[in-house]
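Why predict the complex rather than its parts? Because the way molecules touch one another can change local conformation, and only a joint prediction can capture that. The input here totals 1069 residues.
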Amino acid sequence: MSLAIDQNALTARLAKAERRGKIRAFLLVAPLLAFVLLSFVIPIANLVTQAFYGDLVSSNMPKTTAELATWNGTMPVPESLCESFVTEFKAAKVKDAALPTRIATLVNREFSGSLSKLRPVANNELSAPYCGALAKLNDEWTKPEIWNAIKIVSPSVSPRFFGSIRPETEENKIHLALFGRTLYVAAAVTLFCALLGFPIGFLLAHLPARTSNLLMIIVLLPFWTSLLVRTTAWIALLQQNGVINDTLVALGLIADDQRPVMMYNMFATFVAMTHVLLPFMILPLYSVMTGIKPNFVRAARSLGATPFTAFWRVYFPLTIPGLGAGCLLVFILAIGYYITPALVGGQSGQLISNIIAFHMQKTLNWPLASAIGTLLLAGVLLLYWLYNRLVGIEKMKFA
Amino acid sequence: MKMTKGLSVLLGAAAAIGLTAAAHAGQITVISWGGAYTNSQVKAYQEPWMKKTGNTIVSADYNGGLAEIKAQVQSGNVTWDVVDVETSEAISGCNDGLFEKIDAAKLPKGDNGAGPLDDFVPGAITDCAIANIAYANVIGYDSSKFTGDKPTKVADFFDLKKFPGKRGLKKEAKVNLEFALMADGVASADVYKVLATKEGVDRAFKKLETIKSSVVWWEAGAQPPQLLASGEVTMTTAYNGRLFTPAVKENKPFVIIWDGQQQVFDNWAIVKGTKNKDLALDFVGFSTSTKPLADQATYIPYGPARKSSAPFVGKFEDGKTDMAPHMPTNPDNMKNAIVQDVKFWADHYDELNERFVAWIGK
Amino acid sequence: MKFLRPNLPVYASSLEIAWYFIFRAICVAIFIFLLAPVLVIIPLSFNAESFFSFTSGMLKLDPAAYSLKWYRDIFTNGMAAPEAPFSLAWLADSWARSQWMLALKNSVIVGIFATLLATTLGTLAAVGLSRPDMPFRGPIMGMLISPMIVPIVITATGMFFFFSKIGLAQTYTGLIMAHALLGTPFVVITVTATLTSFDRSLIRAAANLGANPLTAFFKVQMPLIMPGVISGGLFAFVTSFDEVVVVLFLAEPEQRTIPRQMWSGLREQVSPTILAVATILVILSFILLSSLEISRRRLEKMKLEPSA
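Output of the joint prediction:
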């Protein structure tokens, strides 16, 4: 009886100690966790909501938004709608001179040409009846398309920005094609990295430690030099009058006016990205290959295998974990690449990240940028999860 | 122990660096177009102004357009104080409330005593911006690439058979559509009449389509001379001053075709909501006064926006090259010139450029 | 070249020997691919002309075709009086106003503070994560590493929106936070890796001998994981020193860093000055990397000696 009580007390005390240990461990991680939440997780969650939420119209033109919600698409539109639209649009201009153009730009994305129909509404004196006054400004106001466009952009919560990624119009196809191109470039760069990284990993793993450490510096030097330095270097090498073309011409291999175009295209993107990402392939391969015992291959040879068979049937399968880890890592990093394609890729070498930056900085279509970013994020997180399942993030190593 | 000591030394050093950076009287951020152009402004406007007032200028580059300014005003992070903009952007930005209004009557008088409103050439003053110089969008080529006939007119730019090689064009609708129409046979005086119709715009795009596969797109004014020098293109559109500098200073075989040149003003505008409005105004007034404007022309062949500056324009910084024949406003260069219709572009820039960007991506 | 000497077994066929040399040739070619771009910019940075290609004068080794002017430009670009004679005042002017000096100051300030923040938080977290009783280890680790995996454009975009809202955009604080965030995964990974080989019984031994947990951490655990902390910190610093996208989205012109300045050099204001800067950076990273390698060798020697 007393033994049982003691046992219970012991379990409770053990559980308490365990809980205290857990809390102590968690408290050590907590500061970083809070920091990552504040500066990373919340901003990204906020980005994802931006893809669904935009209250520019609904907050500045609430009456118009409400009336458009009940409008069934038939023409002519009710006079009350014209009136609230005109008065609220003009009031927006008084509130902030930039608002009419911002709203008009939003409508213009749904129905091209709306910009020049909407702007005069803010800039001209209009009086009742407003539908008539609008019709006098421009014929388009008697047609349903422009009203439909305003209706589409007016609700504050809508998935419409994902809509512009669907292949319905010529322009939208660009985004879909870019996703395709990004996957293609990432796959190709992964393949190149594997092809170039495998021999180097093999060489380093089978050389005496002193030599391989020295050569490792060559592998790591590009890794440690600034990305921009390396990209600059590729520009100097690959351009029309660049070092490579000049050398080929000087050697008489190509005619001076037949210089191949190697810059500002997909080729340049391939070359520069492979160069940048190659160390991420070599390092995991190297660490797996150093762990492979030479006895295996020797045994295969002594059992009569040709060198090729011994390599292909015995050695190569053992490198698969390293190869897989390297490929997955390179692929994940490649689909999010931005700087190198932006500088050397020209028009045909742009990837999905570049289009996100383009919409962020040039067209100011922020919700669209958020929508594309959300899709890219989902893809990357899926691959990341896969990597974690297959390789384990704690296996990631540098230097 | 050692570690903490090392850290505190580092922290102290960093703080000291931070303090020296912040120790100046006043500071404004001036945004311009980079390369040889910004250099000329640094020499003629910024260095003298910094010396005179003791303030500091943070100078940075952009490639035109209003997007960055809109983004700053929309997100409430206004960090640019003074921006060098083309007149059409100055007008539409002013309409959209992106720029502060500037009272031109309060600008300094000309050195000859002329009041500012009389001293500036027509079109140089708008509600929110003051012009500093007039430049031209021109076509330039590398003469070493064409051994026989040399290109002489806009149409030659579109003639890939007679003048083979890649072409450089700015990634923007403005200027390109005009060149395309002129090359397609539209008289320079009628360009904007034609461009105002839908058929005219279609016609311009159709003409551009004929060379699209041979185009290398550029964004920054410093790129065209680089593209020519590196052999990336044989012919390119450019701002006239950007081709002049390498041709004269470094003897590059760059030749300008003045046929169909398109003249535009560059203006100083002050971004709405800046915390340094007074300093910014002072800088705008100083740099658009008679002497600095004339000084700028010794570094780059752009015409000063004040009449009183004209007598002071002389030779290039090398002391021997006469600037007059290289100015867009020289009568010899003006034969088939057009002046950009700023009203047209203020109204239609967004739509035409959107179509243009979609067309490039196709 | 030592690694070219065949050390094949005697029974190797002639085909194998041929393949051995072909394989070495392939490897040499790949090493050239890795190294050439970094090396080629060094001579180009002494170009007397303002373009990115070798001139005929340079190929003939004509001294007139070479010049140090781009190195001079690093110091003078942006000065109020660059033509003034060299003096203390000239240096002060350059230090206060040169564009590259401004960039250098920003890079160093942001880099140092971001590294301190990342290393402190990252090391603490790694210590917690490697304790056997850490709850939700997998998911938390996954989340802490994700800033390295999520495309930088997405991170920068998210930060732009959120930091604008809370007034951190265009501030040094915001920039330091962003760069620290990008550096933490490196610290967590390297320190966790060092901790896996750490013998936890040492902590219990210290506790037995009367040390409180804090003393045990600083006197026993910390010195042993120091190499991991330092290399993690170095990675965090290099990450910040090389970062451009976040700076593009979050920083104002006055806060531009060296990579940001290079970015506009490549995109907008093409000038060989960036080649000169690049050369300096390459030399710096070479020094950094070789001193790391030397200290690593010395450490190995020290480890080996007692047993020998």
